Each structure stands twice: as C-alpha cells, then as structure tokens.
Amino acid sequence: DASDIEKGTYPHFMLKEIDEQPFVMRNIINQYQNENGDLKLDDDIRAAMKDADRVYIIACGTSYHAGLVGKQLIENIANIPVEAHIASEFVYNMPLLSQKPLFIFISQSGETADSRAVLVEVKRLGHKALTITNVPGSTLSREANYTLNLYAGPEIAVASTKAYTAQIAVLAILAVDSARAKGIELDFNPLQELAIVANAMEVLCDQKEEMEKIAREFLAVTRNAFFIGRAADFYVCLEAALKLKEISYIQAEGFAGGELKHGTIALIEDGTPVIALATQEHVNLSIRGNVKEVAARGAYTCVISMDGLQEEGDRVVLPKIHPYLTPLVSVLPMQLISYYAALHRDCDVDKPRNLAKSVTVE
Length: 362
Ligand code: G6P
Fold this sequence. Notes:
By secondary structure, the chain is α/β, with parallel strands linked by helices. The protein is built from 14 helices and 10 strands. The protein has helices spanning 2-7, 13-19, 21-31, 43-51, 61-78, 87-90, 113-124, 139-143, 162-181, 190-205, 208-219, 232-248, 284-296, 326-344, and strands at 54-59, 82-86, 101-107, 128-133, 146-149, 224-229, 251-256, 273-278, 300-306, 316-318. Helix 3 (21-31) runs parallel beside helix 9 (162-181). The radius of gyration is 20 Å and the shape is globular. The protein starts with a helix and ends in an 18-residue tail after the last helix. The structure holds 6-O-phosphono-alpha-D-glucopyranose. Residues 60-63, 107-109, 112, 115, 158, 160, 355-359 line the site of 6-O-phosphono-alpha-D-glucopyranose. One of its GO terms (cellular component) is cytosol. It is found in: Cytoplasm.
C-alpha cells in the first residue's frame, strides 16, 4: 500500500524519521536563513518576543519535553523568563500570569485538544500566542497570532523523533533572534552550530549496531529502566524514558541525578538498567557520582557522554557540539536504543498500543 512506498527501504517509519534528522536540521537552516546567511524571522514575532515580560510554553508529551529545553534556551540566550507547562494541567490550574505574557504552543500536529483548550482560554484573556508546529494550516496555527514551521516533513510513527529535534532547533533560532532584538551580544551563531549538529547526527545514525547492542544488553528482558542526567541532560532523560515507555512498554523513568537519593534510588536492584547522560561540563562530576551510587547498589550502568567529558568505559561518546544544543544529539542514541529495545520485544514500533499520533480529545 501507499505507506509501504513512503517507507522506502526502511522497516519502520520511526527508523526512517530518526535517520531524517540531519536532513531536517539542514532544511531548518535553509528555511530560517536570508540571502546574506543571516537569520530570517517574522518581524511580528520578533516584536512579540521583545515585548514579552515572560514566556509561557504550553505543550503535551514529547513537545512538552522540547519545551523544557526551549525554556532553558530562551532564558539563557534571550534573558526572558520562561515557564513550561503541560497543557492539560495549565488549563485547569493556571498560574498567576505576568503583566505582558506571550504564549508559545509547541505541537507537532497542531491539533492536540489539550493544547487547544489553553489557546482558547489565552485568547479569551486577550493574550498573544505563537504556535510552533510541523503542520502549517493546522488548528493551533490558524488560531494563534503567529506561527513558526518546523519543516520536518510528515511524521508518521506515533513516537515522535524528528519533530522533537526540529522543535528544539527552531526554539534556538527564536531565542537568538529575540536576543538580537533586545541588543544582547552573542557568541553563538545558531545556523552554523546547527550545521555542526547535522553532521554529528549523521555520525550517530551510522552507529546503529552499537545502539542495537546496548538495547539488547540492557533492555531486552528488563521490567524497568532508569535514565539519569542533570541540567539539559535531565530534560533529555525525560524524553528518553517516554520514548522507551511508548514503544517497548518497559516501565521507564527519567530522573534528575541529584534527586535519586531522595527516594527513587530505593528501586535500584541487582541488574536494574540505568542509562546516564553526561554532556554537561558543569555537572559532569556530580552525574558521575550518581552513576557510582547506583552501580554500588547493583545497577547495570551505561554512560553516554560527550567528547571532552568522556571517561573510560563510557558506551557512547557523542561528537562535541555547542553546549546550548546538546539535546539535539544526545537524544538520538536514546531514540535508537528505544527503537531496538521495542524490536527485541516484538512490539509494534510504529503503532504502539493505546496511543494515537494526535490526540484530538481532552
Ligand atoms: C500524542 C502523541 C505524542 C505527542 C503528543 C503531543 O500523545 O502520541 O507523541 O508528543 O500527542 O502531540 P503534538 O502533536 O501536540 O506535538
């Protein structure tokens, strides 16, 4: 049928979409670049960001996890306070808003009902909204004041991969554009850095055998799994755990390394798989300490680090990229490991049970 043709030589859409990520990064660079090689973004969006005293990011699922990274990017680069919220909570449990809020809706499909419910309320209150979506003309795009497109191409697999990295890339571009609008001097060219990311992603896409081995060794028979990290790595761990849950049905948790000792470490037994991310220089020592703590309690540990921070025994060393953009490359092994774990467990990778690609009911 038609879907087989689109899959090409790939056994699953998910694997195809993981592999498309370097191309998506390059596509985003082209779409957000003018003739002079500078950033190209809507003047209205720049003005809205400049005008905002606080940004509220609203999203669900994987898009929410991209929003957490986006919060860090906008705060660090553009110096605007940002809150990231789960749409289904925000709508019934709204925090006190700032004087001049700007709402950013992140949604691959642009059709998620939970997010739309917030947008309806935000408009009723008279606030401005920007939608970041992969589907131009979608409901969330039409109903918001502004739209930024992801240019990731159709995402078919229920588990989101290339939309997540596209969302983070576009959020980085938005953050830099906003910083420039506010006259902040930056030593960070997002288009150049995204080109480096695309190359790094390609390197990782060529390491499928190692990812398959890790999946087989750590996740083929286990009942549960933990992903630990600190700072930006923590956000990626949340996404890694969600990916694994969605397609392999392994009970997985993403955890902040330092928070483990406050409860969750009680779950570590002999052989519990713990996958740790170590891409953040300022917390490298402390996450290494957390790995030792869980290993001492019997955990079976796998460390994924970044070039320059690696230690002997690390299973994957990611190519070095700009510290702002590490989630774009650190998530890739996580996506592949989840994919192979699901294969080993005979799960329906592209259409996991109980899930829908786009949830249009609240
Ligand atoms: C569904 C999908 C998730 C997705 C979430 C948000 O639950 O299964 O993969 O992250 O919706 O979707 P959106 O289209 O709003 O990004």
